[in-house]
User: Fold Cytochrome P450 from Parnassius mnemosyne.
Amino acid sequence: RPPAYPPGPPILPLLGNIISVWFNVKKLKYRHKLWQIWSRKYGNLLGLKLGSINVVIVSGKEYIKEVSSREVFEGRPDGFFYLIRSFGKKLGIVFSDGPAWNKTRRTVLRYLKYYGYSSKAMEANISEECRELIKLLEKNVGKTVCVNRLFDVSIVNILWRLVAGKRYDLMDKRLKSLCDLITRSFKVSDMSGGVLNFLPFLRHVIPNQIGYTELKNIHASIYAFLKETIEEHRMALDVHNPKDVIDALLMEMNNQKDKTLTDEELQVVCLDLLEAGVETVSNTAVFLLLHVVREQEVQTRVQLEIDREIGHSRPPKLSDRTRLIYTEAVLLEALRISSVATMGIPHMALDNAKLGKYVIPKGTFLLLALYDLHNGVHWKDPTIFKPERFLTKEGNLIQTEWFMPFGTGRRRCIGEGLARSELFLFLTHILQKFHLKLPDGAPLPSTEPVDGITLSAKEFNIIFERRF
Ligand code: HEM
Assistant:
């Protein structure tokens, strides 16, 4: 028999699995939970049809690695949901593919590095944001602080200093509302694109109910901010002294012969960096606080390690990472247990391809089950926050292929180094100075996340107490 499409639940004409997905997600609350349950039933390659689109859920480290490493699966979906954020075209880095993606990814990385990415300047940049954040927390010592959006502006600042050469005050109203917009856009749907992707004509019938109106308005506001930023750069551009990534890309635009780099492309690149680089780190940092306030022994062990290896007279540095092994294990455990990018970013088959004993038709979306990889059967007591699982008996860090929060292969995250540095410096700066506790009588904050494009923590409060 010729190879078939991977197995899955029964497919209805026209709608495919949309109705059963809708009912089950309502019941289970999380899409990744449904994919997990169905994958256990049908296998590590779960074949679905959502509307007219084939969607395969890829589970287990072997298949996730295989899909991430084969060129034929290097595409990104071109469904309606993905393209409304980029003028109806495949632009930028995150949702483009082919030679244009490759060129843009390499160019942007080159300029990010030139302007300080992964260098000492980057460390100075993150450290400055940590100092500003500590100042803000100093003003709130002893008070009840809702921490869910605590890191947003700091994280935009770190990225924005490279991209646009500026930072904002942590209380800046415009930047805070920009961050709120990004957060809201991440809650409208999930990485599969939802109804808007699979039944896009519904936007003409029930635009509000399926999130179309909201997404359109959000993107219009974010683009207004980006256009203004780019215009300011264009007016002030000094061709002898480009100051940041936007300047460098504007110069490249002026000098190019093939006209491939357009204004729209530049705007989408900026949007990509903001969307991919802010919610992911911010939500993981908030989960970190959630876990260390819940697990007071973990918090104490990190503080003892900081006291022993760094002391109180100087701030933490990235070079301390090699000695703060337990703290590193805490970061890895937070990235594992809270896996904010539950299904990575969807890949798309660029041609018909064989995978295992099945055939994946051209145009199929492939969602990588990263949450399941990190919280599935491989891990002992996966729901328990246990940093020791990342440590050998001798106290060294364990590397495992069952852990790939940033993906793998040519489409892997370009922000891994930055994200890990940010998380390390935020956590150590905060725990060096403060003890984190819950307000009197408050219940333990829930580890149950809120669903969306990335998972986030439910609202909770912390009291920051000065340690010395
Ligand atoms: C905890 C933080 C982060 C997590 C968990 C995370 C996770 C991921 C994952 C799973 C992917 C998809 C890999 C794939 O398609 O196979 C990805 C892609 C990407 N990430 Fe991150 N990321 C984080 C932070 C960042 C930061 C700080 C930046 C900004 C510099 C960033 C920029 C990107 C970009 C541009 C892509 C698309 C790459 C491409 O399609 O070629 N991410 N990330």
User: Anything to note?
Assistant: The pocket of protoporphyrin IX containing FE is lined by residues 68, 93-94, 105, 272-273, 276-277, 280-281, 284, 340-341, 344-345, 405-407, 411-415, 418-419 (CB under 6 Å). The two ends are 72 Å apart (CA to CA). Residues 160 and 166 are 6 Å apart (CA to CA). The first helix runs from residue 18 to 28.
